[in-house]
Amino acid sequence: MNPFEFALAIIALAFLYKLVKTLVLQKNTSGRRDDAANAELVERLHQVEERVRVLERIVTDERFDLKQQFKDLGS
Questions:
Q1: Which residue, of 2, 3, 4, 64, has the greatest Cβ tally within 10 A?
Q2: End-to-end CA distance of the chain
Q3: Residue 13 falls within a domain, yes or no?
Q4: Does some domain include residue 23?
Q5: What is the pTM of this model?
Q6: How many CA atoms lie within 13 A of 55 on its CB side?
Q7: Cα-Cα-Cα-Cα dihedral of 50, 53, 57, 60, to 10°?
Q8: How many domains does one find in the chain?
């Protein structure tokens, strides 16, 4: 192996190392972003579930039905 081929091999290995390093870092950071987005979506889902529970409680309340009937009579 002459010196020119040796230098070329070292340069090729350096570029290959940088490429692999970049790919690994992108894979790791995209996973973190997905985890953060998933955590935010789960939190919003819990908030929506709580709001639905409150609305169900209001609608199934007997007083709500009575108020609705009075409102319908007034119209």
A1: 64
A2: 97
A3: no
A4: no
A5: 0.46
A6: 6
A7: 160
A8: 1
Tell me, what's the pLDDT at 45?
94
- The helix/strand/coil state of 1 is coil
Give the Cα separation of 15 and 18 in Å (integer).
5
Task: Give the C-alpha separation, 41 to 38, whole Å.
Answer: 5
Per the domain annotation, does 6 fall within a domain?
Answer: no
Instruction: Give the ranges where 1-75 is alpha helix by DSSP (H).
Output: 3-60, 62-74
Residue 74: domain span: 35-75
Higher pLDDT, residue 39 or 67: 39
Rounded to an integer, what is the distance from CA 8 to the centroid of its chain?
44
What percent of the chain has a predicted confidence (pLDDT) above 90?
Answer: 27
